[in-house]
Design brief:
This protein has about 120 residues and is mostly helical. The chain has one domain. The chain has five helices and no strands. It holds the Pfam family DUF4267.
Protein backbone atom coordinates (compact mmCIF):
# COMPACT_ATOMS: atom_id res chain seq x y z
CA UNK A 1 0.00 0.00 0.00
CA UNK A 2 2.76 2.48 0.94
CA UNK A 3 4.75 1.63 -2.18
CA UNK A 4 1.73 2.07 -4.46
CA UNK A 5 0.78 5.38 -2.88
CA UNK A 6 4.35 6.69 -3.10
CA UNK A 7 4.70 5.59 -6.72
CA UNK A 8 1.40 7.20 -7.75
CA UNK A 9 2.36 10.45 -6.01
CA UNK A 10 5.78 10.41 -7.67
CA UNK A 11 4.16 9.86 -11.08
CA UNK A 12 1.83 12.78 -10.43
CA UNK A 13 4.73 15.07 -9.52
CA UNK A 14 6.72 14.05 -12.60
CA UNK A 15 3.78 14.47 -14.97
CA UNK A 16 2.78 17.79 -13.34
CA UNK A 17 6.30 19.18 -13.75
CA UNK A 18 6.37 18.13 -17.42
CA UNK A 19 2.92 19.72 -17.91
CA UNK A 20 4.07 22.97 -16.29
CA UNK A 21 7.10 23.03 -18.57
CA UNK A 22 5.05 22.43 -21.70
CA UNK A 23 2.54 25.07 -20.58
CA UNK A 24 5.36 27.56 -19.96
CA UNK A 25 6.79 26.83 -23.39
CA UNK A 26 3.46 27.22 -25.20
CA UNK A 27 1.85 29.93 -23.04
CA UNK A 28 4.54 31.76 -21.05
CA UNK A 29 2.18 34.58 -20.11
CA UNK A 30 0.17 32.19 -17.88
CA UNK A 31 3.02 31.66 -15.40
CA UNK A 32 4.93 34.85 -16.12
CA UNK A 33 7.24 35.64 -13.27
CA UNK A 34 6.10 32.84 -10.89
CA UNK A 35 6.30 35.25 -7.99
CA UNK A 36 9.01 37.65 -9.11
CA UNK A 37 7.67 41.22 -8.83
CA UNK A 38 7.87 43.66 -11.69
CA UNK A 39 7.78 41.05 -14.43
CA UNK A 40 5.53 41.53 -17.46
CA UNK A 41 4.30 38.70 -19.68
CA UNK A 42 5.21 40.64 -22.84
CA UNK A 43 8.83 41.21 -21.77
CA UNK A 44 11.05 39.36 -24.31
CA UNK A 45 13.75 38.77 -21.69
CA UNK A 46 11.21 37.18 -19.35
CA UNK A 47 9.83 35.06 -22.19
CA UNK A 48 13.34 33.80 -22.95
CA UNK A 49 13.94 33.04 -19.28
CA UNK A 50 10.62 31.19 -19.07
CA UNK A 51 11.60 29.12 -22.12
CA UNK A 52 14.80 28.09 -20.33
CA UNK A 53 12.78 27.27 -17.21
CA UNK A 54 10.31 25.32 -19.36
CA UNK A 55 13.12 23.16 -20.70
CA UNK A 56 14.38 22.55 -17.17
CA UNK A 57 10.90 21.60 -16.00
CA UNK A 58 10.26 19.23 -18.91
CA UNK A 59 13.64 17.54 -18.49
CA UNK A 60 13.46 17.20 -14.74
CA UNK A 61 9.87 15.96 -14.86
CA UNK A 62 10.85 13.33 -17.41
CA UNK A 63 13.77 12.25 -15.21
CA UNK A 64 11.35 11.68 -12.33
CA UNK A 65 8.97 9.73 -14.57
CA UNK A 66 11.80 7.56 -15.92
CA UNK A 67 13.15 6.88 -12.43
CA UNK A 68 9.69 5.83 -11.23
CA UNK A 69 8.91 3.79 -14.35
CA UNK A 70 12.20 1.98 -14.78
CA UNK A 71 13.94 2.09 -11.44
CA UNK A 72 13.38 0.83 -7.96
CA UNK A 73 11.47 2.78 -5.34
CA UNK A 74 14.86 3.50 -3.74
CA UNK A 75 16.21 5.05 -6.93
CA UNK A 76 12.99 7.02 -7.47
CA UNK A 77 13.14 8.22 -3.86
CA UNK A 78 16.67 9.51 -4.19
CA UNK A 79 15.89 11.18 -7.52
CA UNK A 80 12.84 12.84 -5.95
CA UNK A 81 14.91 14.05 -2.99
CA UNK A 82 17.60 15.41 -5.32
CA UNK A 83 14.92 17.23 -7.33
CA UNK A 84 13.77 19.06 -4.16
CA UNK A 85 16.68 21.43 -4.78
CA UNK A 86 14.79 23.06 -7.66
CA UNK A 87 11.67 24.29 -5.79
CA UNK A 88 13.86 25.25 -2.82
CA UNK A 89 15.93 27.44 -5.15
CA UNK A 90 12.73 28.83 -6.68
CA UNK A 91 11.60 29.77 -3.17
CA UNK A 92 14.87 31.58 -2.52
CA UNK A 93 14.72 33.38 -5.87
CA UNK A 94 11.24 34.74 -5.12
CA UNK A 95 12.20 35.77 -1.57
CA UNK A 96 15.42 37.47 -2.71
CA UNK A 97 13.45 39.35 -5.36
CA UNK A 98 11.10 40.52 -2.59
CA UNK A 99 8.23 38.69 -4.28
CA UNK A 100 5.05 37.66 -2.53
CA UNK A 101 5.63 35.32 0.37
CA UNK A 102 2.46 33.50 -0.65
CA UNK A 103 4.15 32.49 -3.92
CA UNK A 104 7.44 31.68 -2.22
CA UNK A 105 5.99 29.56 0.56
CA UNK A 106 2.57 28.59 -0.77
CA UNK A 107 3.79 27.44 -4.18
CA UNK A 108 7.51 26.75 -4.24
CA UNK A 109 8.29 25.82 -0.64
CA UNK A 110 5.18 23.66 -0.28
CA UNK A 111 6.15 21.88 -3.50
CA UNK A 112 9.58 21.20 -2.04
CA UNK A 113 8.03 19.85 1.15
CA UNK A 114 5.62 17.59 -0.74
CA UNK A 115 8.43 16.27 -2.92
CA UNK A 116 10.57 15.59 0.16
CA UNK A 117 7.74 13.64 1.79
CA UNK A 118 7.17 11.63 -1.40
CA UNK A 119 10.91 10.95 -1.66
CA UNK A 120 10.99 9.61 1.90
CA UNK A 121 7.88 7.51 1.27
CA UNK A 122 9.56 5.99 -1.76
CA UNK A 123 12.65 5.18 0.30
CA UNK A 124 10.51 3.54 2.98
CA UNK A 125 8.44 1.55 0.44
Amino acid sequence: MLATTAIVLAWLVGVAVVAMGVNNLLRPQVLAGFGIPGTQADDPVLRAWLAVKAGRDIGSGLMLVVAVALGTTTLAGWVMLAAVVMPVCDTLVVLRAKGPRAAAYGVHCSTAAAMAVIGVLLLLA
